[in-house]
Write a structure and sequence with these properties.
binds NADP nicotinamide-adenine-dinucleotide phosphate, 8-stranded mixed beta sheet, Dihydrofolate Reductase, subunit A, alpha/beta, 8 strands, about 180 residues
């Protein structure tokens, strides 16, 4: 059971109306509206800490400035960190979050992709979700999670974003975190 002193993790992702988060593997995230990019930047900069899988990092092409970037990979030794704001780790979800909490971080944005999201959900370390529904249909592609993840959510807020997107904020009641 996690205590309330642990890092509060918010999953921050965009998806299409049919629930896809990418068109294919290594797909660049070039299909969201400017207003969603602004929302993502403001929210993650406020949190100061972004957590991602190596495939998402590679798809982004580099670290997000002004935030600490922690990239999960089984092979951190094969990656080169160019600054103190970029770290590669093969640690467990719990160990990495505990280490970041000890560094003083209280909040983190989990920014994908579906495989790392699944690892966090299985560890019970997702507290909130900020999901942007984009006015697109891809027909195929990954979703928010790569495996069956049961989660019971409470809607906190829903608001239009940009020209055709919808920003949904949910709190996890059961399933994503042990102390909800
Ligand atoms: N729509 C959105 O908001 C959004 C957001 C983010 C990403 N995406 C898209 O999603 C796609 C990438 O997602 P993905 O699910 O394929 O990959 P991903 O979750 O970004 O990365 C998977 C990789 O992360 C590492 N990893 C995952 N869990 C780990 C764990 N518990 N411990 C250590 N390492 C772990 C492994 O790296 P190694 O193989 O290096 O060991 C694994 O291959 C891209 O196309 C991207 O554009 C969309």
């Amino acid at each position: 059971m996690k205590t309330e002193t642990g890092i509060r993790v918010s999953l921050v992702m965009a998806r299409t109306l049919d629930g896809r988060t990418a068109r294919s593997l290594n797909d660049p995230l070039d299909w969201t509206e400017a207003a969603d990019k602004a929302h993502f930047s403001a929210l993650t900069r406020r949190m100061g800490l972004v957590l991602m899988g190596s495939k998402t990092f590679d798809a982004m092409g580099g670290p997000l400035p002004g935030r600490k970037n922690v990239v999960f990979t089984r092979f951190p030794e094969s990656r080169v960190s160019v600054s103190g704001d970029l770290a590669f780790t093969s640690g467990s979800v719990d160990a990495v979050l505990d280490g970041l909490a000890a560094e003083g971080y209280g909040e983190a944005a989990l920014i994908g992709g579906s495989r790392l999201n699944t690892a966090f959900a299985k560890a019970g370390r997702i507290h909130e979700l900020f999901v942007t529904v984009s006015p697109l249909i891809f027909g195929a592609g990954p979703g928010l999670f790569s495996e069956h993840i049961p989660m019971d959510l409470l809607l906190v807020n829903a608001e239009p974003l940009g020209f055709g997107s919808l920003l949904l904020h949910y709190r996890v009641r059961h399933g994503g975190c042990h102390d909800a």
